[in-house]
Structure formats: C-alpha cells, structure tokens
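Working notes for the structural subgroup meeting. M.R. asked for a predicted model of this chain before we commit to crystallization trials. I am recording the input and output together here so anyone reviewing the notebook later can reproduce the run.

Input as submitted:
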Amino acid sequence: MRPNNENKSALDAYESGIHTGWRLQGRRPITTASNLFRRALCPGSARLEEGLPDEDSDLSREGDLLHDYSAHPEYDRALLSPNQRDLLELADTLTKTAIERVETRSGLEKPVHDFKEQNYGTEVISGTPDQVLYYPETILVIDRKFGYNVVERADLNLQLRVYAVLTWVSSYKDVYVAIIQPRVSYDERITLARYTPEDIEDARQQILSILAVARSPDAPLVAGETQCRYCKAKLICPAFREAIEQAPALMSVDDALTKTAREAYLVQRLAECSDEQLEKMIDAIRLAAFAETLALDEARKRIAAGALTNFKLAKGAEVRIVNDVRRALVLLNLAGLPKDQIYDCITNLSLGKIGEVVRKAHPGWSWKQTNDWVNQKLQTAIKTETRKESVLRK
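Returned structure, recorded in token form:
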C-alpha cells in the first residue's frame, strides 16, 4: 500500500506543531539527507549555509543530467555521449541486480509501487531518493551515485539512513537501502543494508540528535576536508579560514632564500613537524584547494568594482590554441614538414580520447571491447606507471 498521512514517517513527531506529509510542502529545509553528514561533522554549517545558492560545476551538472535520464528511461539517450550512455546502462544493470538480491533474499514478488524522484520530508529535513519500491511488507530505497569518489557504504551512509527513516511507516517490517556507483571499482558498485523497525528507531534518534545540535544558535563550526568540500559557506566560514592559515604559520620561509634553499628548508621543516602539525598542514592544503577558484573569481569581481585595492587585474592573456588537430596535421604535412617531426608535436595523447575515437568507429562496442582493442593495438606504445598511494583520513 502507498504511504499516506495516516501512516506517518518515523520523523513525524520531531517536535510539537510539526506536521509530516509524504510530499514535502513549502520551502526546502536547509538540512537535507545529502548534507546531514556535514551537520554531524560541522553543526554550525547549517547556520552559515542558510540562504546561500547551491554551487554549480561541470560534474554536478552532469550528475543532474544522468539522474534525470535515469529517472526517465523514455528519454532518447542517443543525445548523450558514449560514456554517459555506458554509465546509464551500467547503472540500470546494477539497479536490476540490487533489486534481484533483495527480492531473492526476502522472498519477495514484484513491488506494489515504484516511485522515482519523489520528495519526502518534514520542515526540518527532507530527501529525494532516486527510487523507492514498496512491496507488501518491505521497502527498497535506491540511490545512484554517478561521481568518481567512493561514498560511504550503505550500512554507514547517513543519507541513506535518512531515506530509510523518511520512507518507513509502521505497517512495514523493514527497509532495504542500496547505493549504486557505476564509476567505482567492481566490488564497491553495489552496497546494501537492511533496517528493522528497531534500527529505524535508533536511526531516528541519531538524526534528531544531529538536527538538535545543528539548530542551536551557537552550533560549533568545525573545518575539515569531508565537510568543507561541498559546503556553500566555506568562503565566509571563520573555522575554514583559521584552518587554512595553519599552513603559512607552520611553513613560513625567508623570502631572501633561493628556490633551492627554500625547498630544502621546507623538506627539513616537514620532517621536524609533529604528527599533529603535519595533519594541520595536509588539511590546510586541501581546504585551500577547495577555495582557490572561488576566491579568485570573487577577487576579480571586487577589483572590477573598485574594491580589494591591494590587488589589481592583469590583462587577460590571449592564448592561441589548435582547435582542429586533424586539419593542423594535414597543413603541416602539406607545408613539407616530415611526418616524424609532425608526430613529435603530439604530446599528452590520452588513452581515454583514443577510446572515444575508436568507439565512434565501432558504435556497437562496449568499453571493455574498446579497451581490449586499444591495449592490443598499442601495447608497444603503452607503459604502466605505479602512482603514489593516496593519503586519506580514516
């Protein structure tokens, strides 16, 4: 049966006077399922993000596009790039696999209702799962992640925990949540978790405790790579600014030193740092990287408006680029330049780009077939490099 206002969600009784409907009405809450982890790590982020617009990027726009196509299989996918069509096809296959696992494990028949991109929530928190399937006594919530970064697995993921709480009603015995990640390694593409009514209550209490702290006027601000990465308020956050300032304080260098001497000094200074100081350095470097582009864009606006008087805008450089590589190579050859010298002009040849060209020539090939062909044909021109290990927080 479809949930309604007679079967309230587990967050219905957040506080007196708040009424929960299955379709959220009115303004979207500042805290959502997707940013609750940020409230847990930095409760004060809710206060600073209030009223700020969402950040936009090429990756976020592509993610929105892929989610839209995923929710609407009737859309013509021929308009997408081969890579995007592959991602959607793999996401469809992974989704089907996740559904089959839950149905087999629980002995379920087909779902009674299948909702896509439906908004659930209260005045204090909301969420929009990609897909929610209602069986007679079981609910399955599916969330697709089209990014490159591996997200926390389903049993620990706060976003999916909120979805479980918001979609569950008292007449159902359990909720399964599934995360689908087509861009990550094979063993991490599907993760599943099951919430019993007891688990739902525990999750509800955890969510309410996070919300209670975040709604406090003096909720603390805590900077960190995870919570600051997508925070809309990082450029105006004093905790973010203080964390970034740790690096210059630890690594100040005499400007009179030569470049070689400065590098030698920094290597020695880093070796002498305590673990705590080195942690602050790493955090400061990564946090500064998040803000660099945004800070420079803001600086350009202020300088153009007559502010930020300690800086000035340099004249924009005019850079010539080759926008038609094929024609450029033909013209060089016609001009008498030998082929081997023409080939020397080609640097940073991307295997990904080669793969895209090969797929255009063989539109029916999968990426595996394409990669196998490229590896075979170019085996004498390809080498494998071992990159340095990533440094990640536990």
